[in-house]
Amino acid sequence: MPVGGKLPNTLGLYDMHGNLWEWCQDWWYEYPSGSVIDPLGQEEDEGRVRRGGYWSDTSKPCRSAARNASSPHWFSIAIGFRVAALPAED
């Protein structure tokens, strides 16, 4: 599917779900109870976080809140990363 072929989400981002599981900077750990903002975890043997599901998954993991962990050395056609840039400041 061409990039930007669907409407953006409420944050103005396009094509965020269902293409690939996406590697994240975070190390895996169970979230603590209560509210947290952008937790990174601690470097441990649990693996790096991946989010979002990919095209042959069921619909449940194809959302940004879906998270799983894998060894940073693991590779698959089902996992990738998203290149992003901050907007230039005036």
Question: How would you explain this protein's 3D organization?
Answer:
The chain has 90 residues and is mainly β. The protein has a domain at 15-29 and 41-82. It contains no helices and 4 strands. The chain has strands at residues 21-27, 48-51, 67-70, 79-80. It has a 4-stranded mixed beta sheet with strand order 3-2-1-4, with no helix packed on it. The chain is globular and about 40 Å long. The N and C termini lie far apart (34 Å).
Write the layout of secondary structure elements.
Blueprint: E1 21-27, E2 48-51, E3 67-70, E4 79-80
N-to-C series of helices and strands: EEEE
> N- to C-terminal separation?
34 Å
Rough outline? globular
Strand-pairing-aware structural class: mainly beta
* Average of per-residue pLDDT values: 80
Please report which band the strand proportion falls in: under 5%, 5-15%, 15-25%, 25-35%, 35-45% or over 45%: 15-25%
Biggest sheet character = 4 strands, mixed
What's the alpha carbon Rg, rounded to whole Å?
A: 14 Å
Helicity level: under 10%
Low-confidence stretches: none
- Spatial order of the strands in the main sheet? 3-2-1-4
List keywords for this structure.
mainly beta, 4-stranded mixed sheet, 90 residues
Summary, kept brief:
The chain has 90 residues and is mostly beta strands.
